[in-house]
Amino acid sequence: MQLYNNLSAKERAELIEKAGKERLTISFYKYAKIGNPEIFRNHLFLAWDQFDVLGRIYVANEGINAQLSVPAENFEAFKNHLDTISFLENVRLNIAIEHDNFAFLKLKVKVRHKIVADGLNDDSFDVTNKGIHVDAEQFNELIEDPDTVLVDMRNHYESEIGHFKNAVTPDVDTFRESLDLIEEDLKEHKEDKKLVMYCTGGIRCEKASAYYKHKGFKNVYQLEGGIINYARQVESKGLDNKFIGKNFVFDQRRSERISNDVIANCHQCGKPADLHTNCANEGCHLLFIQCDECKEKMDNCCSTNCQEIIKLPYEEQKAMRKGQGNSNDIFKKGRADHLPFKKDLRNIFDTLKPQ
Ligand SMILES: [Zn+2]
Ligand SMILES: [Zn+2]
What we know:
- Its EC number is 1.14.-.-.
- Keywords: Oxidoreductase, tRNA processing.
- InterPro entries: Rhodanese-like_dom, Rhodanese-like_dom_sf, Rhodanese_C, TrhO, TRHO_N.
- Belongs to the TrhO family.
- With 355 residues, the protein is α/β, with parallel strands linked by helices.
- The protein is 30% helix and 19% strand.
- It has helices spanning 9-19, 37-50, 75-83, 136-142, 156-159, 175-185, 203-214, 226-237, 292-297, 304-309, 314-321, 346-351, and strands at 23-31, 54-60, 63-71, 94-95, 107-111, 132-134, 148-152, 162-164, 194-198, 219-223, 243-248, 255-257, 276-278, 287-289.
- The strands form four sheets. A five-stranded mixed β-sheet has the order 4-1-3-2-5.
- The chain starts with 8 loop residues before the first helix and ends with a helix.
- Residues 266, 268-269, 271, 291, 293-294 line the site of one zinc ion.
């Protein structure tokens, strides 16, 4: 069953039947010029609300980035509506491997400056001059090539729980940092190496590949539809799976398992574990990996300090948080020094540097 680009009527019917009354978890993006994102946003919200779509959708002058869930029985209507929008006709839908009816709880369609916070000045390079898109089969071949450097375009907390074998996984908090780090590391190999990149659903590579071509890299490739689509193709076409561990996703599910390998460790006791959690202390909210035993022992907290705080009356906790920074730093704080088994990914990057 091919689940990207056009789903045939038969494939759609199969998908809906298989899901039964369940919701399907879907993501897609498209770079396109949108003149009035506000009007487009309202149009989407009114239409999708009727289909009981839930999710987080960003709309900007540069396009749309959507992560959502839709009841299986409304999938057909949803897809038909997408096809009425010229630049979304037959857009590739990344359909999740593991569905969760609670992946999203609300429909939020937001107008943003950009659909991905990439930190790039798009006027400085041609964003349409992208890398070569490869499917799972081509990707598997490419990464066996000794001249290939395979780069994970995601952040440290994503690659920590799962990545492609032999991928370079930069120890970065942001996409922008990653771009510079990789360029610096590969500056001697702009012409002789093949730069092959991947991310969750492909959106980050759309910009990254254009950026690297602009920076003089001659052979730039990107995994079409990212890890989500790769996993689907591996399954449907019976290909070799080169991805180990879990794919980090940005909804309540947190991740989807792609292989049975557990490649990360509990940040508190060091035992194999790959489940991200947020510290139960709302004033901390640190994102970290915690095993079931530590979860119980620590009351889902990252430290004894936080454990003490959550025992205080709620009003007192609120008073303590006053004037503190916002919790958007949660991923950064994932590096917190008090976690004894936080992995140092920088070492991985050094050892995998091409010779
Ligand atoms: Zn533990
Ligand atoms: Zn904490």
